[in-house]
Amino acid sequence: MSFVPVCGPEGPLRVTAASAARRPAAVRAVLFDFSGTLFQIGAYEDRIRAALADPVDDATMDRLLNGLEAGLSHPDVIEAQRARDVSSKAHRHAFTTWYASVPELAPCAEALYEQLRAPEQWLPYADTASTLARLTQSGLPLGVVSDVGWDLRATFAHHGLDRFISAWVHSYEHHTEKPDPLLFRHACRELGADPSETLMVGDHPAKDGGAAGAGLRSYVLPAGAAPGSLRGLDAVLRLAGLLSA
């Protein structure tokens, strides 16, 4: 395995003749984030209507969604998010605390969380399957590195995508979160890939982009893509040298 050289404020402290002449290594393995990168959960409107016993009109739904938005800045919710992905218990607490910050949703906070864990609630982006298939057909091993509170294999299997993934790194199983180098390096070891030849793809600049601190390359997608839409994963194929620019 290769490691990141010691750098000062302007660059590497030591530059050898070998490193100066070296070309960037080809991408030989790809790691993906889960939520917001390969999958997105279904619309909150649909989830709330399924969880509540009584019908919800549009005005009420708008008020509930406004409440969830406001809840993100509530001190109790903010505190619950700290280290939320280091254990299943912390993950559940973080989300149920947020849901319960809206009084009308408090009674169904656990039901909303169970939706979050349900494979059928998650939708692959329109270009997820084709991208994973193309990378696999080209011989590149793939892994998932996700800050999450449950095992994602069932979700991928529900959509027939588990066959493409050879390494699964769930933060809660390692009691840490991205961008901890431990997670990225563990995935590389699982795939038998050198970090310098591995690409991490995600949607969070600090967490997924932080893979660079472990010696990987990273590609960060813009956040906010709608469930089921094209995610722009063709860029990954280009970075892997499978499509021309």
User: Which fold does the CATH topology of the largest domain refer to?
Assistant: Rossmann fold
**Name of the CATH first level of the largest domain:** Alpha Beta
Radius of gyration, whole Å: 20 Å
Strand order, largest beta sheet? 5-4-1-6-7
Characterization of this structure:
The chain is 38% helix and 11% strand. The chain has 245 residues and is α/β, with parallel strands linked by helices. The chain has 2 domains: 137 residues, Rossmann fold (3-Layer(aba) Sandwich); 80 residues. A 5-stranded parallel sheet has the order 5-4-1-6-7, sandwiched between helices. Helix 8 links the parallel strand 4 and strand 5. Helix 4 packs antiparallel against helix 5 and helix 5 packs across helix 6. The model has no long low-confidence stretch (mean pLDDT 93). Keywords: Hydrolase. InterPro entries: HAD-like_sf, HAD-SF_hydro_IA, HAD_sf. This is HAD-IA family hydrolase. It comes from Streptomyces decoyicus.
What's the helix and strand layout?
Blueprint: H1 17-21, E1 29-32, E2 39-41, H2 44-51, H3 58-71, H4 75-81, H5 88-100, H6 109-117, E3 122-124, H7 128-137, E4 142-146, H8 153-158, E5 167-170, H9 171-174, H10 181-191, E6 198-202, E7 217-220, H11 234-239
In brief, what are we looking at here?
This protein has 245 residues and is an alpha/beta fold. 38% of the residues lie in helices and 11% in strands. It has helices at 17-21, 44-51, 58-71, 75-81, 88-100, 109-117, 128-137, 153-158, 171-174, 181-191, 234-239; strands spanning 29-32, 39-41, 122-124, 142-146, 167-170, 198-202, 217-220.
